[in-house]
Amino acid sequence: MLLITICVGxxxxxxxxxxxxxxxxxxxxxxxxxxxxxxVGAFCMDLCSKGVSVRxxxxxxxxxxxxxxxxxxxxxxxxxxxxxxxxxxxx
Length: 91
Ligand code: FES
Known about the structure:
The protein is 43% helix and 25% strand. It has helices at residues 10-14, 17-30, 69-88, and strands spanning 2-7, 37-42, 52-56, 59-64. The chain is globular, with a radius of gyration of 13 Å. The protein has a domain at 1-53.
């Protein structure tokens, strides 16, 4: 399971963390990655001044805007999800 952790602290909420989460959820569904990629919320990650903070597995990102959801998904999430999938199904 690849976990996407999105900060829902007040600063990130004001910058659109809910909207970002919804957009990423739609993309997970579109790519049929349910059960392989999941989204959870987290409180402040101490990177408030940079914009919405997101963790993808162990990788930390900040300043992600909701309108960048698709670009972020295909650049940073799908490759990590593929690796998880391959390690689960080595054949
Ligand atoms: S509120 Fe999101 S990093 Fe602080």
